[in-house]
Write a structure and sequence with these properties.
The chain is of the alpha+beta class and about 325 residues long. The protein has helices spanning about 15-30, 40-65, 70-80, 110-135, 145-150, 225-230, 265-275, 290-300, 305-310, and strands at about 5, 30-35, 95-100, 160-165, 175-180, 185-190, 200-205, 205-210, 215-220, 240, 250-255, 260-265, 285. The protein has one domain: Sandwich (Jelly Rolls), CATH 2.60.120.330. The chain binds 2-oxoglutaric acid and fe (ii) ion (FE2). Fe (ii) ion binds near residues 181, 183 and 238. This is aminocyclopropanecarboxylate oxidase.
Length: about 325
Amino acid sequence: MTIPVIDFSKLDGEERAQTLAQISKGCEEWGFFQLVNHGIPVELLERVKKVCAECFKLEREEAFKNSTPVKLLNELAESKKNGNSKVENVDWEDVFLLTDDNEWPSNTPQFRETMKEYRSELKKLAESVMEVMDENLGLQKGSIKKAFNEGEGDNNAFFGTKVSHYPPCPHPEMVNGLRAHTDAGGVILLFQDDQVDGLQILKDGEWIDVSPLPNAIVINTGDQIEVLSNGKYKSVWHRVMSKPDGNRRSIASFYNPSLKATIAPAPELVEMKDKKEMEITNYPTFVFGDYMNVYNEQKFLPKEPRFQAVRAM
Ligand SMILES: O=C(O)CCC(=O)C(=O)O
Ligand SMILES: [Fe+2]
């Protein structure tokens, strides 16, 4: 079993209907799919790989060697009684976040320019993907973007880019690269390593590899798209395995609601469902910032209690 691979350029031609159907299936049955011919220039992707690899070497690697996961893993490996145990509550991952207004790594040549350009392209791709979701869900064009941008005052949707490296791990059986979770936000666009795998999704009770496909962008939907679509598009559990060889790079960009946005199932989808099934929606209405407060405490737990917690607020 492999996650769907979809040629995004075919949306513009004779095969538009089939492509919309493939994306619909990717969203409904998988929650994850890979896009090829997505319009991001390969030349830009090559520069992104280069500056991120250089940035890790120059500005991150040394600190990772002294990081908490490395210390905890060493302690466990050296202790006599490790048995089958695992290091708890940490991930074998080096991470930093790029947003429009935080501090970026500044010592790697071309890093800032390249990643600014990359983020601007990825944001456009996110908006195109959301428009396809609007269309497939039978919503007005721009509905998802509008829902994410609502709220008073500073009402912009949040677009963040998380640059991760998963360095080679001496005891992969003792620590996760990233523990299993569903993503909190909206649409996630992942540019993963060409060579080193490790990402897996849970499908019908089985963990499936998201195998590297050079220069593809992996799309997945977070908890907010599940709510907005009234459960038609489920956010899917995924995790990253640590590996003995290779330093895996992954760059995840998140198009998330503004913290002030009110998120709820789209009324169109609730009405249709009610008429057909005479059933009230299972999803709450809440402010996204409240959801994030819960998520930050419960990221690695099931999402249902998160929905219950914000319903009660
Ligand atoms: O590194 C990856 O492949 C996935 C990262 C991820 O799931 C996340 O940052 O939420
Ligand atoms: Fe994730």
